Amino acid sequence: MGKQDQLDTTVLKQTQEIADRIIAAKSVVCFTGAGISTESGIPDYRSQGGLWDKFTPVYFDEFMSSRQARIRYWDQRMNMEKSLGHARPNKGHLAIARLERSGHLTAVITQNIDGLHQASGVSQDRIIELHGNTRRVRCMSCQALTPLDRVMDMIRHGDLAPQCTCGGFLKPDTISFGQAMPQDAVQEAARLCSRADIFIAVGSTLLVQPAAAMPDHARSAGAFTVVINLSATPFDARSHMVIQQKAGAVLAAVADRVEKSVT
Asked: How far is CA 60 from the centre of its chain?
């Protein structure tokens, strides 16, 4: 652990308690937001200097009704790739993957669209993506999925508003402003939270619904709830433990302690 990531005695005691509870738990749910991926160099969306400071969002109905809006949308997405495309999992992502390998992770519920949990080694069937995944593209008509790289090649070759072979509009498989949330994913996330013994929210402001309701589902069902975030969240007062530190250092310390217990 680098000097800048060193944790004080109080936080180290907290990570030991989290590890002890994880070891004893039957169900461990991690809930992640943009704050875990900023440590991989991905800017978040809403804070000053975030992505929406640079780009005006294209709403879903605009995308579906206007070719010019689709061209603008894909131009923004190509620019975002300058940060998204080179991002790699950081210590926080890798620590969550380590929890799975040690047999102590039930699910990762994420607001992030970057695919870094998969890249870190977490099994796809343990990941619930509430806002989709930008590494794949979906046809808005036939629902067929296409790798992002293939569609980006279409754009580089002059097809600025790419379409599926069926004629449907191609769009990253993410939830745009004004687009309905995937109800199956939301319901499954709520179910898992309501059965968790320990719920760890990492890098989320816990402001955006329905994701912000997830810690309440867990707390109401009796889970021990932890918030790891650099800034305060609306759930802090109801959480059993709050750690205002970088996610990577805290999660790595937790994973270290869990792994030591099983060796």
From this structure: 21
